Amino acid sequence: MKSIQELSLHPKTTSFFNDLSKKNFINNEWVLADCDEVSEVINPANEEVIATIPISSSEDVNKAVEAAKRALYAYEWRKILPTDRERLLYKMADLIEENADHIAEVITLENGKPFAEARKSEVLGAAKTFRYYAGWCSKIEGETFNISIAQPHSKQNFAFTRREPIGVVAAVIPWNTPFSIAAWKLAPALAAGCTVVLKPSGETPLNSLVLGELIAEAGFPAGVVNIILGNGSTTGNALVSHPGIDKVTFTGSTTTGKAIGKAAIDAITGISLELGGKSPAVVFEDADLDWASQCVTQGIFRNMGQICVSGSRVYIQEKVYDKVMTDITHRAQKMKIGHGFEDNVDLGPMVCKSHLDTVTNYITVGNEEGATLISGGKKIKDKGYFLEPAIFSTTDNNLRVVQEEIFGPVLVGVPFKTIEEAIKLANQTNYGLSSTVFTKDVSKSMRMVDELEAGWVWINSNARSDPHFPLGGFKQSGIGKELGKEGLYAFTKTKAVNIVY
Ligand code: NAD
């Protein structure tokens, strides 16, 4: 792949890369970080260093939180008219669409995913999320209550609740779909009247800087959104444990989520955790098998398997097991692997060297555990973190490759005989994020809906997000929901009021 200077990029992308130095976005301004430590952002398609970012210190974090507090209380963002918030969110959606090529290029350069996918699912998806939540700003409601508290002298109660913004939000996000997830947190938090400090992942911080530019251009008051760059242990930790934070909304691994959850409980801070998954796909023999194979292949390998809801375990009814596994294998082998700006590319590189090593280590583990590697699993190309999609087959549901989240292009097939067995195998996991089922039988699909222990159940389709459709896991996959009305109300606190008159 060509270097950044040789690529013909959008003029805004070129000037963006010409003007990057150690900066955070605080009070709508680019502020130099007060730290000595830096880290490199690497293009995973050619291993070129494309930027250096600060590992912001607790002092930097403090400045961002103070700015968010001032915007909320002193400048009263929490009290601005809902229709004014709505206008800003619509403007943001428009700006994201206008800058779609530029944003998608930045995502492809730092994350590696194909440009077309970055543009469609991440950037246009984020615009859709801002537009969806713009409509909610003026529709946040409380309730009235007929309470039975006796009052003297024939006085009466007027009891009601109202939803108030929860306050200053710390939003900590991962690298796999960074622009979408930033929108999933920012749009509802802003719609609810909160202010935000966003900390993107150290692997993919640059698209959040473009987001900051658009926040300022849209006209959000200073301090309403602040973006702080850095790693997890220094910057992220300082943010989630800052006493000025009222709510932490975190998306990332279950291990990090647990640590953040403990810190939040100590501080009695609100918390939502969107964590890892090891989601099952179940294919019954009566399904449209061609469609099921297509969906299972896309469901695991899209974004190189770096999607939380990826169907990474496929349970296939015994009679059709060989046929479906063969079909999935052929489809996977036909996927075009290349850098994100190549034409018709399906799969880009893994996000970074350490993640490539983690995933290839799991392929070794699968082989050592006795699973049969049917296809793929080899590193390819001299430069860049490219990996062939890997497909295993086993009858042992307890293997590590079946139980642990790999977060890469690794699918494990397991045969089953009966629906009872399928339910048992699918639920035999610590996770509970998503699940997909393929069958033409409505009764069978409803039985699966009843029995599957997962926050999402998709029948005859891949799992795909929509702003109006709540996403959030059961079991070790998280606490709380993102998106939809629940995702909005997660950024509010309920005040119960009784007026005696
Ligand atoms: P990660 O947990 O390593 O990091 C996520 C974010 O947390 C990053 O910004 C990181 O810098 C920060 N962080 C790390 N340690 C921290 C600490 N001690 N305090 C505060 N912040 C800290 O996850 P990742 O590798 O970036 O992302 C992959 C994981 O995200 C996978 O497990 C995947 O399933 C999960 N994920 C879940 C969803 C969902 O909706 N449930 C969506 C996308 C990704």
UniProtKB/TrEMBL annotation:
InterPro entries, sorted: Ald_DH/histidinol_DH, Ald_DH_C, Ald_DH_CS_GLU, Ald_DH_N, Aldehyde_DH_dom
Active site, per annotation: 274
Domain Aldehyde dehydrogenase residues, every copy: 33-497
Domain of life: Bacteria
Protein name: Aldehyde dehydrogenase domain-containing protein
Protein family according to the UniProt entry: Belongs to the aldehyde dehydrogenase family.
KW Manganese (keyword) present: no
The entry's keywords: Oxidoreductase
Molecular function via GO: oxidoreductase activity, acting on the aldehyde or oxo group of donors, NAD or NADP as acceptor
Native source species: Aquimarina atlantica
Gene3D superfamilies according to UniProt: Aldehyde Dehydrogenase, Chain A, domain 1, Aldehyde Dehydrogenase, Chain A, domain 2
